[in-house]
Queue: 2 jobs
Job 1
Amino acid sequence: MGRRSSSTVAAVCVAMLLSAAAAAAAQKYNAVYNFGDSITDTGNLCTNGKPSQITFTQPPYGETYFGSPTCRCSDGRVVVDFLATKFGLPFLPPSKSTSADFKKGANMAITGATAMDASFFRSLGLSDKIWNNGPISFQLQWFQQISSSVCGSSCKSYLANSLFVFGEFGGNDYNAMLFGGYSADQASTYTPQIVDTISSGVEKLIAMGAVDVVVPGVLPIGCFPIYLTIYGTSSSSDYDALGCLKKFNDLSTNHNNQLKTKISALQTKYKSARIMYADFYSGVYDMVRSPGSYGTWFSTAFETCCGSGGGKFNYNNNARCGMSGASACSNPASHLSWDGIHLTEAAYKQITDGWLNGPYCSPAILHS
């Protein structure tokens, strides 16, 4: 009986893999266009050179795949790199590049980007917490500026056969508030405005001709070494069963629930569009909960691979990855966290697979 059950399971797994491969082969896109922040920036912040004062322009960033820093905040590839490869497209050039061909894709994401404009943070007295001005409104303008070179006067039909990834947005908005002295509860009062801005941005893309749009939620920030180090407490009640800080994950969960509600409304409003919610939160949290489910590559949830912080999380804000004296672990693929703030290439690969085939995207990007 056990042998037959194993054979049946194996047959089902093979069938699922073949089905996913067939879906990918049948599903073609003209291009992938991405918007967001440091989670998916592939070089916009560095199009005018690689400023030495920015840590992620320094080794060992980029070591796993590229062999040197590429302005990606990881040891290698990020989600949009894996998505482009899946659909037979080149890596997305940064939209600020003056020499790139954007017909097969472009990346508007820029490190430090927020959902809200600078005026929002000025109104909260947090201007000094936003170090780069690349909000949703700017990124939509950047896309409009390159669209004429992409599709000329026939943009609607071209963009209808392209994949758009819109976010994540919101993470840096909350970072600014939380590191600016706001409590998680105070930050959550601005979630409706942030989510409305994201939803409005999706509608603007649809008006331009976008049909397939992936809208990621925010990550479980309470599980990240930077938060665990800075806001760690001696009270066990502040942590969930996995060791993540509850109040910060509650903030992320509240944002994602409101975003899912907005996306559901957009799906109802725009019947001809395919609007997908990508679940960054569950993708990361499941790896924290059950690292063994993802193979032997993943062995540590909270310890930062690159840095020189020591201690439980190997994170020190004054000795971050890319700073003098910092070094990387021997096997980044065994870690979830690369630098305490961003994920490793291996983690991004797992998340991308979950977006393409499920369960971390609703509906999954690949479809028959």
Job 2
Amino acid sequence: MWKRGIKSKAWNGPQKFRITILLSVILILVLLILLVHDNGRKNILSSGLLKQKWNSFESLVQFNPTMEVLNGTELIWQIPDTPKAVLFLAHGCSGRAVNFWDRSSTCPNCVGLPEERLLVLHALTQKFAVLTISSAGRCWTFGEEMFIVKDIIRWWVEKNKLQKLPLVALGASSGGYFVSVLATQLKFSSITLMIAEGRFDQMDITEDYPPTLFVHMPKDQSRQQKIDENLEILRNKGVDVAEIECMEFPLSSHFFADRIPGIDQTFSTKLFELFQEKGFIDENGYMKNDGRATRWKLALKESNIHLPDKHLAQHIQEELNLAFAYHEIISLHSDQIFKWFESHIS
């Protein structure tokens, strides 16, 4: 019919009109699908954020870590009943092991930053024994420190009789680079590199390199490009790889109360309204700049708004960085991360 119609002069005008209408409808549908898809990526993340609160695991697991200093290196860990795997967590630059754990009688100096603590709680809930170690300096190094950490992990695993359990690792930023190299020294079942492309351009990768998951923020386009390159390098070596993209999301009046222990709804609303007033967020609640470049602390001072606890400034800063989604540790995709780990546990 269509071919015959195209040949017929009598129907040529109306036929062209119908085709034009059809193409217009298809174009509109495609644009709507792309818009929904783009918004969907943000909404899925926001939806996950709303469901996951700082006390989401309260009825399932409690912090009860053990601290130890071994030859000048700080270790903090917790082993759940009947653990099924061991997870080593490596912090980023300026981080410490104390960031992963809430302050308690067994860890009086612990900080419990929002994203780090939720990663640990998720791991403990999934029956992963968790080991955190502090770097010697501001960031991880790849010489002697690599062998020190390797020996500590082996010693700790043997000490706690966990040798038969699979070993996995997650490193963020500097910790991600560190884990990518440590994986050539220790046998991990799989690893996760968070906001880090790894050091694969400086290593001899073999087919027995562990399955690698990249969790990153595409807004950092330079790192995105390097991750794309390293995904290809690893695939070509026969290594199982995957990636999770972390997108920006809007703030809300309950955001800070939901994410940060010690902040109530009243202060959360006050902080959100201040961000609106100062123009730190757009009309939809999205951060206009990275949290590190936002002078929110000065705005608090000028508005005579006082933090419930001065130590919470670091917690708020982390969540602002997270919302902007350029470079920050993230717990929102913990379900997918631990499914990755579990899928490679043999």
